Amino acid sequence: MAAPKKGRSHGAQSRPGRTLAFILIAMVALTGGMFLSGHTTPRLGIDLAGGTSITLKAKSEPGQKNAVNQTNMNTAVSIIERRVNGLGVTESEVQTQGSDNIIVNIPKGTNEAQAREQVGTTAQLYFRPVITVAAGAPTPEPSASPSGSGTDKDKATDKATDGSKDKASGSPTATPTPSATPQGRAVTDGLKADSSPSPSTSSSASGKPTPSASPTPDPATAALQKKFTDLNCTDKAARSQVTSGVKPEDTAVACGKNSSGQWEKYILGPAEVNGKDVDKAQATINQQTGAWVVNMDFTGGGSKKFAKITSKLSQQQPPMNQFAIVLDGDVVSAPSVSSTLSGSAEISGSFDQQSAQDLANVLSYGALPLSFQEQSVTTVTAALGGEQLHAGLIAGAIGLLLVVIYLVVYYRGLSLIALASLLVSAVLTYVIMTLLGPAIGFALNLPAVCGAIVAIGITADSFIVFFERIRDEIREGRSLRPSVERAWPRARRTILVSDFVSFLAAAVLFVVTVGKVQGFAFTLGLTTVLDVVVVFLFTKPLMTILARKKFFANGHPWSGLDPKRLGAKPPLRRTRRAPGSSVGPVDTKEA
């Protein structure tokens, strides 16, 4: 049984060409994938490629005291960073400056425009019941008309309320309900200003009109109605002003676009559900309509709140059976409800893929604890980073040249193996970094370049360990081929331990740091893994193949494996008999 095992081991050692072919095919495949992807250079960070720098100033909402504090600022930095990275913009920098400013640096060539829209979006999400809805233009003052001539008013309101084609989904699914409720009645019923009859006239027995008693109107209700009547949703300043300082528990006036893209204005009741009750949001395609929508899953508490409010709304008449999904004061959707919903909801409207993904992105990462005003937007040039990169590349080239000189002088012929291995490692590093750009958004910055330069020493150290183990075996009097096979297990153990320590350090550095330092840690970890791949799949098989060549096997002085130069001991296992020795022939069977 021992003989076949020995044969299999010998066969495995005699086929290093297969291993070399494998890694070379992998290199060709990766390089081909790089060219096919259309990305032939790594993505660069903002310090090397330039980009956009946005300065945001925090501000407190009316009624908030001491809201701009260190805790809220740190929370805002974390949320903004997740939003920007959620767009595929990595290597972005989000940091505080002073007590109330946040600086956002976005590398060039990424989704700068989308990131700029989302960095300062507060993303305060509320679900509010709709009290009334009308066309977005200012509502004209009602003119006196005979009894029963309110047809025009009713038609205007019906047309406005019919414009909302949004839907909400859950279990079961809500369906849009056309509105046929006159505007004035909806306002009165929703605000519950007074249950007494409105001022009117009646005829007495004598035929003379007698005014009926009327209560004093509520000033708050009258003010809200006037704000609603005068609101022009086509005016951006008016939309911003009407939502300023509104609290969740207040009755509010807001604007939004319907599915036809027309502006509508709403009177909305107090918020029943908020963004904190949303567990996650995702942009998907509605299988029935083929339109882009945003699906939201509620938390346990949020699901109960949502079921409660939809249960109430399902019993109302249009438009009071609608709930408005309000994001940062704007109505993004106003679906109607026909039955109780729970668990999840669907926001639909005039979304395309990008707008649906943007909304899902801001909802997924939560609302900012503060409101921010964009102070400045500047373009960052790569001039300084380019100079530093040029200096860094010169330093790396000098270091690489010194390593090459050392290898050639000390290891001579073995330096060819080391240089070939360094070349393979460099090609793999470049190609993988290029492919990681579009794949995970990896961007090369100055610290990452430093990590790649440090990796030269780590890779060269692995070759030196292997070569020295082989030399130790030759010094013991063994020939080259068995020396290579005996040296490999010992060298392999040392290389793995050394690379594991380097990778562990890189992993810890990546976890505990932020910003550019993570680029250094990521590159160091990547090159450490590639060092193991290259040594196992390229250096060792190549050394096994060259050990069969006379130049190395016979210990040529320029091979780097000359037994005399290494101080090798005389062979221990075989000795030559002197001429004329009286020792008889050796019995081969006994031997």
Commentary on this structure:
The protein is α+β, with helices and mostly antiparallel strands. The protein is 48% helix and 15% strand. The chain is built from 18 helices and 15 strands. The strands form four sheets. Strands 4-8-7-13-12 form a five-stranded mixed beta barrel, surrounded by five helices. Helix 13 runs antiparallel to helix 14 and helix 13 packs antiparallel against helix 16. It is elongated. The chain starts with a helix and ends in a 25-residue tail after the last helix.
Layout of secondary structure:
Blueprint (H helix, E strand, L loop, with lengths): L1 H12 L2 H21 L9 H4 L1 E9 L10 H17 L6 E5 L3 E7 L4 H8 L5 E11 L15 H11 L21 H9 L9 E3 L5 E3 L7 H12 L5 H8 L8 E6 L5 E6 L4 E2 L3 E8 L6 E7 L1 H14 L9 E5 L2 E4 L10 E4 L5 H12 L6 E10 L2 H29 L2 H27 L5 H30 L4 H33 L3 H31 L3 H4 L9 H4 L25
Parallel strand pairs: 7-13
Antiparallel strand pairs: 1-3, 1-15, 2-3, 4-8, 4-9, 4-12, 5-6, 7-8, 10-11, 11-14, 12-13
Distance between the termini: 21 Å
Helix content: 40-55%
Tally the beta strands: 15
The description of the largest β-sheet is:
5 strands, mixed, barrel
Strand content: 15-25%
Mean of all residue-level pLDDT scores: 76
Q: Give the radius of gyration.
A: 38 Å
Uncertain stretches: 1-12, 144-214, 583-591
Q: Number of helical segments?
A: 18
Spatial shape: elongated
Please state the structural category.
Answer: alpha+beta
Strand order in space, largest sheet: 4-8-7-13-12
